[in-house]
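sorry for the late reply, my laptop died twice this morning and i had to redo everyting from scratch. anyway the thing you sent over, i finally got around to it. pasting the sequence first so we're on the same page, its 308 residues, then the predicted structure underneath. double check i copied it right bc i was rushing
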Amino acid sequence: MNPSFKKILLASLLSIIPNIVSASDDGPRMYWNAPVGTNILQAYFWTARGNSINPENTQPQIDFDTDINIGVLGYNRIIDIAGHAAIATAVITGGKVSGSVLGKSLASSSGLGDVYLQGVVNIFGAPALSPEAFATYQQDTVLSLLMGVTVPTGSYNNNQALNLGTNRWNLRIGLPFMQTIGDWIPGKITTFEVLPSVWFYGDNDDYTGLGLNLSQDPMLTLEAHITQDISPALFVSLDYFVQRIGDSRINGGSPSGANTSDSLGLTVGYMFNAQTQFQLRYAAALNPNANDGELDANMLQFNLNYFW
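ok and here's the structure:
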């Protein structure tokens, strides 16, 4: 492989699997272009401490103190759809959720989490390219369409407050956008990236041991990143994320629980060699008010990416 092409390809594949174990941000440099036929395998460990009762972070609860530890295995493939680059993704999670309420320990949940499937199709700025054509590609302005679905395959017990699975289908729609600032030269690349998304939730028709029906209004999210190369192998990113959680209803009753939370984080990515990259991420909620039901959490994530 040509050394200069290798640097360009590695820069484009620093991070490509979405962070679906929660409704937190996907992360920086997620939806850059890559050659058609590229495969990406990613394993990562994600841990969070706060007041959410499931890995989605969509149901924060007053007086809860929880620990969520998740392992993730994901596969991506870059494909060609009518001349536009697209990313097909499948992710499975597993781990453990434990915690307490008012100091009293709760039954933990462990096993597999919900499966997530996602497709991203470029609208403009990222054409489908062969490896040879990609060697001269200069990424500038990129806009794509994202659609994902969460399948309720995870471990769920209606007699427990804490669960890895959510017992409901979720649909996500988003518009990943990226703008290169300055020249597209590996080792000197700077980007500004934003991703607005909306999550639609199906009903949990087996909520609590009473078999109640839990419905939830859509959640709106917006993430933004400023990324900067330190060298051809190393980049850093300043990450901001805000989410507006919709009201929940039990058996169609009075709405409650709507709130807005935001967080600030930092990402560091480093490429060990031509096929392997490591990434470390940290984020914390900004000025949370847990008494109002806002998300109060800190997150740490380790990523290991392998591509061929």
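The radius of gyration is 20 Å.
thats about all i looked at so far, will dig more tmrw
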